[in-house]
Structures are given as C-alpha cells and as structure tokens.
Amino acid sequence: VFIAQSRASGSHRDLEDEELTRIFVMIPKTYTEEDLREKFKMYGDIEYCSIIKNKTTGESKGLGYVRYLKPSQAAQAIEECDRSYRAILAEPKNKSSESFEHDYYSNSVRPELRGNTLPFCMQPEFCSFEKAETRIQEPVSKRLSVVSRLPFIQEQLFALFDLVPGLEYCDVQRDPHTNSGYAVIQYSTAASAIYAKYKLHGFEYPPGNRLTVIFLEDGNDSSE
C-alpha cells in the first residue's frame, strides 16, 4: 500500500530513499549488528544495520534498524520474518527516535502477556501513546466496526489489522445490494482496539479509499 501511494504521488524517489527501505525491529538484547544482519540478509541487500543503545550505559535497548536497497526487500522482510521481531517500516529520521520508540513499544505488546514484560526487553505493558486517552470521548470496547466505499478482501483486511497485536478475529460481511465494505474486528484488549482505531481510522486502503473505524459495543464494562 505504501509503495503504491508513493508511486501515485509522483514523488516515490524520495520516499523510497528512506521511508520504504528502512525497517524497525524488536530483537534480543544480546544481538550484535552482525547478528541482526545475519538474520535479515536473506530478504535482500542490506545497506546497513544499527542497534539502538542506552546513551548512558551503552546497553542495547532490544531494538534496531535494518535498511535495504529496495522497498520490495524491506516489504518482504516485514512479511516473512518471525513475528517475534515485530518488524514495521521505520519512521523518517526527522521524527525523534524517542517518540518513535515510544509509539513502537505501545504497538508491540503481545496480548497474551498480562504482566509487565515484553519479549526480550523489560518495558511497561501498553504505554500511553501521545496521550490519546485524553481525546477519547466515545465509549470504548474491544470490538471495532470498519466501513469503506469498496468491498473488503478477508485476508487483506485481516493482515492490515493484525499489525496491531491482539487481533482475535476479522469478520468481513458482504451486502449483495451494495458494493461497500463492512467488517467487524475484535481484539483481546481494549487497549489494542483503541490503538487500531487511532492508527487506522481514515487510513487509505487501498489508496483513495478511506476507512471508517468506530467502536462497537461488546457487552463489557467500557470503564475498564
């Protein structure tokens, strides 16, 4: 989707130069840059690898960057690497790394972990993201309704919402009388559903078709 959008905009060269070739991954703190390169070189030609370290102690934060020569290689790495790496496209370098790491931690929590740990790194479960909770005025739930002008393909919509950890099911429903798309999404926690709505409401998928994402009542106490 990102590659298609960049080409449609006519400025794909600049985007491909960074936004579409650099990925951000969660790794064991014991990994060196050579370990990182070894794990991801199977997906394409790597320009460089780097590991994010604590500025004071020099200890790895359990996060790293891998930059490929081609967007297709970065896309393949995100699609095919082990899910434990939580690979996503990295934000451009003009966004502060601390802000991006903060968002990433919020997005990368495994839903089955009910304590205060993340794989490979000890971080709080679901940090607040950009104080989004202060902007939410509607009742929240673990269930979302997704509507678009175009019909959905089950596998594609599932893959899109599965980028947020904790997806339990994605049910695409078809109306024989219209060509619009409608689906019900459910996550294991309300936090995951809030983050998915925050990130994907208004997202163009495919390019030019904006998604409308709202909460659906799931029968649970929304105050929780």
UniProtKB/TrEMBL annotation:
Q: What CDD domains does its record include?
A: RRM2_RBM45 (cd12367), RRM3_RBM45 (cd12368)
Molecular function terms from GO: RNA binding
Source species, domain of life: Eukaryota
Which Pfam family is an annotated match for this chain, by its short name?
RRM_1
The entry's keywords = Repeat, RNA-binding
| Start and end residues of each RRM domain | 21-95
Read off the PANTHER family from this record. RNA BINDING PROTEIN
Q: What is the designated name of this protein?
A: RBM45 protein
From which source organism is this entry? Toxostoma redivivum (California thrasher)
Q: Its encoding gene is what?
A: Rbm45
